[in-house]
Backbone:
């Protein structure tokens, strides 16, 4: 894990994400890239090319530079290689562009309650970044003084297309020496007998060399509630899932599950794209 991207709007919740990123960086000797997307109030059409907009553009840019320089001086970043990027682009597009251009290994983002990302992280940006990011995305909801991933819940249907992103998850889990609690959620509309679910999960894990895991089948009214309730029952540090770039979560992870779970989970959530 060499490069960690942390988008910031200088809000409290963005700082929560940066604090967690700093802890991960120190543990893995990683570099942090701080990104601020500058979305101007009148950024539309030819605004960037209009002469009367230049003073306004420079004001926002200078303010962002000042805020980033202050942020890079905080004590919890001491000893970490930190670089900064300011980009004139919409938040969702810019995060994906910078992540890909810099070969980022992990994106850590702050999230504000059930309403999505605070300030620049609003509307559908939560779901879009989680769904389309080629790099894993770790979403932080609250201040975490001591980030841990030793108790790691991974929810899936354990189909073949999950194997590639699951290999990324295994690498992440190894860096924290995590105990993986693998869970398949049974719902009234998608129910598998225990012996069938266990066989699917056992066959899936035969291809991976990771000894520290348990298999769990959890029954609930829907997938989202099942994941949240199971994570609560085992007091998980992190919830992990795989996402599908075009249609939402693969198989039983579909519709609005991605946005709902990221928004509703109090615990950190990390997603890996299929």
Residues:
């Amino acid at each position: 894990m060499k490069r960690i991207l942390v988008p910031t709007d200088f809000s409290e919740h963005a700082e929560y994400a940066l604090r967690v990123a700093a802890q991960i960086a120190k543990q893995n000797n990683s570099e942090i890239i701080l990104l601020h997307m500058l979305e101007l109030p009148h950024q539309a059409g030819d605004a960037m090319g209009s002469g009367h907009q230049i003073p306004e553009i420079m004001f926002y840019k200078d303010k962002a530079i000042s805020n980033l320089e202050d942020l890079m001086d905080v004590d919890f970043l001491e000893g970490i290689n930190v670089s900064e990027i300011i980009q004139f682009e919409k938040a969702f597009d810019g995060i994906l562009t910078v992540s890909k251009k810099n070969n980022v290994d992990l994106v850590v983002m702050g999230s504000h309650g059930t309403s999505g990302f605070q300030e620049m992280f609003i509307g559908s940006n939560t779901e879009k970044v989680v769904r389309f990011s080629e790099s894993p995305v770790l979403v932080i909801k609250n201040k975490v003084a001591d980030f841990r991933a030793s108790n790691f819940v991974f929810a899936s249907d354990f189909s073949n297309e999950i194997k590639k992103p699951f290999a990324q998850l295994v690498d992440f889990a190894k860096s924290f020496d995590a105990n993986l609690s693998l869970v398949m959620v049974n719902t009234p509309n998608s129910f598998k007998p225990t012996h069938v679910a266990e066989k699917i999960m056992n066959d899936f894990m035969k291809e991976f060399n990771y000894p520290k895991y348990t298999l769990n089948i959890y029954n609930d009214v829907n997938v989202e509630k099942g994941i949240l309730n199971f994570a609560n029952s085992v007091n998980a540090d992190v919830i992990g899932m795989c996402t599908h770039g075009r249609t939402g979560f693969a198989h039983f992870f579909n519709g609005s599950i991605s946005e709902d779970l990221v928004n509703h989970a109090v615990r950190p959530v990390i997603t890996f794209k299929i």
